[in-house]
Design goal:
Strand content: 15-25%
Order of helices and strands: HEHEHEHEHEHEHEHEH
Shape: globular
Distance between the termini: 15 Å
Radius of gyration: 17 Å
Helix content: 40-55%
Bound molecules: pyridoxal-5'-phosphate
């Protein structure tokens, strides 16, 4: 499993270079290591190599491996980066430290209820469907700023940032730029954007969090 550690070190080196290239302070960008589909034995060496922030896209899968991993490393930070069903809100609030995929009223309401009930407050980001793709999760970009505001006023939720997954077949640059603009309009300073194929570009566009899986762990 030294492969994943090598992958981790290479990605960290490239993020640092991209920060310098973009004139951003060193450490401005947090690497979210996306460990979906990989088991605890594959993930553990990456934790032991110093990585603390991880992303998973399914609540059920995350529940099967992270409670045990978190026991050994209490400072782990776990991001939910996949779509959230309202019947999983309870488990998501209990397990995750950051939920990046708030994208509709029903989920906002369900999260607010669970956060009050459990007295546990994961950070929340709103997912924006920057390409307005019909099959993709996320709020339409034209509604994003108003939705962030409604999360605050109607549900009492603090939204900390925005997240996007650009269309596969398009240059991601304009999507990153759009997300950055929407975050500015909404008064948010966290931007989760950039994956294995485009995280250096995302750093240039102001990403504060990049979600990188296969460049660290290998093909899924
Ligand atoms: C899987 C996934 C990633 C990581 O993708 P890679 O191309 O493997 O880096 C990032 N974000 C989300 C939302 C994902 O589901």
């Amino acid at each position: 499993m030294t492969n994943a550690v090598e992958g981790l070190n290479e990605v960290k080196r490239r993020i640092a270079a991209a920060e310098t290239e973009a004139g951003r302070p060193s450490g401005a960008v947090t690497l979210v290591a996306v460990s979906k589909t990989f088991d605890a034995d594959t993930i553990r060496p990456v934790i032991e190599a110093g990585q603390r922030v991880f992303g998973e896209n399914r609540v059920q899968e995350a529940l099967s491996k992270w409670p045990a991993l978190k026991e050994g490393f209490p400072d782990l930070v776990l991001h939910l980066i996949g779509p959230l069903q309202s019947n999983k809100a309870k488990e998501a609030v209990a397990l995750f430290d950051v939920i990046e995929t708030v994208d509709r009223e029903k989920i906002a309401a369900e999260l607010a209820k669970e956060m009050n009930r459990q007295d546990r407050r994961p950070r929340l980001y709103v997912q924006v469907n920057t390409g307005s793709e019909p099959q993709k999760a996320g709020i339409d970009p034209r509604e994003a700023v108003a939705f962030v505001e409604r999360c605050r006023t109607r549900h009492g939720l603090t939204i900390d940032g925005l997240m996007c997954i650009p269309p596969l077949d398009e240059n991601p640059g304009p999507h990153f730029a759009l997300l950055e603009k929407l975050a500015r309009q909404a008064g948010l300073d966290r931007l989760s954007m950039g994956m294995s194929g485009d995280y250096e570009l995302a750093v240039a566009f102001g990403a504060t969090h990049v979600r990188v899986g296969s460049a660290i762990f290998g093909a899924r």
